[in-house]
């Protein structure tokens, strides 16, 4: 019998989601975010890039502003009002001290108990698809930066800037993992999850000839069905949760 997934932790008030690009959180995770913000929890987004290399027919300078607008509108649909961009270059994000420092600074600024990121491993779907270097770099750096954020002797310049160490992160939850341990019921936030992805309309229209709403619904259905059989048959967002 397949092991059942545990429900996501509930005893927290603030979460910080750290991902590489606009739209990363909307491929399923936003449905969970909608449920959390409905319950009065504070969820904030930090994106390493502005997704400026994501649309072949739009020059990066124009694309950057377009995708930022789409991401802010998308976040608002699920109750997220704070969205930051770290301005690392889209497509060539490098894992290393600079990225860790920027994410550690964000953790210190926002002081979350739960940190959310995206699959940091080299493949998706049991090895069927190759992951992008940006996702790998940002996911791995987020896991490391949570520890950096609590150590005043790593990146001491952050303390000098008034960002005191934060050791309050209790969990890091990785969405899109092939080895989830927990899940969040996606039902209550499902429709807003669809609308949140639809706010990335320019990106979707460049990505596929499919009708944008049909595309968004098929993506959400696929993503939230993958772990349903391990979560009481309900549509859900799976997470690999690391406790601290």
Strand content: 15-25%
Assembly state here? single chain
Largest sheet: 8 strands, mixed
Distance between the termini: 29 Å
Q: Mean of residue pLDDT?
A: 96
* Spatial strand arrangement across the major sheet: 1-9-10-8-5-2-3-4
Radius of gyration: 17 Å
SSE ordering:
EEHEHEHEEEHHEEHHHE
Shape by Cα distribution = globular
Low-pLDDT parts are: none
Number of helices: 8
Helix-strand category: alpha/beta
E-strand count: 10
Helicity level: 25-40%
Features:
244 residues; alpha/beta; two-stranded antiparallel ribbon; 8 helices; 39% helix; 18% strand; globular
Structure description:
By secondary structure, this protein is of the alpha/beta class. Helices cover 39% and strands 18% of the residues. The strands form two sheets. An eight-stranded mixed beta sheet has the order 1-9-10-8-5-2-3-4, sandwiched between helices. Strands 6-7 form a two-stranded antiparallel ribbon. Helix 2 (60-77) packs antiparallel against helix 6 and helix 3 (97-110) packs across helix 4 (133-149). It is globular, with a radius of gyration of 17 Å. The mean pLDDT is 96.
